[in-house]
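Friendly challenge for the regulars: who can give me the structure tokens for this chain first? No prize, just bragging rights.
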Amino acid sequence: MKTKKTKKKRFGRNDVELTMLSLPSVIWYIIFCYIPMFGVIIAFKNYRVNGNFFQSVISSEWVGFKNFKFLFSTPDIGIIIRNTLAYNIIFIILNIAVPVALAILISQLRSKRLAKGYQTAMFMPYFLSWVVVSSLVWAFLSYEKGFVNMLAVDAGMEATQWYMKKEFWPPFLVFMNLWKGLGYNMVIYLAAITGLDAGYYEAAVIDGAGKWQQARYITLPLLKTVIILMFIMAVGRIFYSDFGLFYQVPRDSNSIYNQVYTIDVYVYKMLMTSTTGMASAAALLQSVVGCITILAANFIVRKVDPDSAMM
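First reply, four minutes later:
Bragging rights claimed.
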């Protein structure tokens, strides 16, 4: 019997349209993600400006892992790693627990207009840059004309040097991170809750389950995949820190540097002192460790629950 030859698929009109739609994203990734990877070589060189960028990279002295050695011999490296890891662990926990709880609560509101109002109010801070937020914080905490100190003076108390108090900043920075990202994270979980099958809840109501029991035995188990996915993505950035939060909000106050000195702040200060090689080494270390942590987290999740793994 003769077998029919399968015709090769031609590049049709739909393929052209889809290709054109994806082209801007492809160009963006090539320009801003792949081409800059050439700069990784700076981490292994004693970078000195000598003409244009490519000439400077090629002509700079090759020092191997010397920049990494200097990085780990920095006196403050313990503080840098401690702050980066400690803050991120707290951020990961709170940025999952609090948005999930609020998403469940808002999904239970009967008034859709009220729910939309709450979502908008909590989402607005996400669109503010840290420059704007730092100005607002300064307006509240400034020693001379800050709103908080003005209220304290009017009440007969003394003004407080908030930018000098070390114990104040760790909880305050945690609060600012949660406040700014709460709306964005909550909308993700709220969208997942909206897509759940209403039949589960109808059956639970017939069986006499209350709101708390519905959230515990239906909503949370069905949100497990989304929660684990967000957790894996957050773990991948455990060696990164939000530069705006840790540098701009405290206004680079030297009196509290032990509390706000993270890897991204260190990279910026190295760039300001012209030690480009060390800054590049620190950034490369962040990327490598981030890749390892996200793969490790995904591997553990895949072993425990294969259906919830990202890869």
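The mean pLDDT is 86. The CA atoms of residues 204 and 213 lie 9 Å apart. Your move, everyone else.
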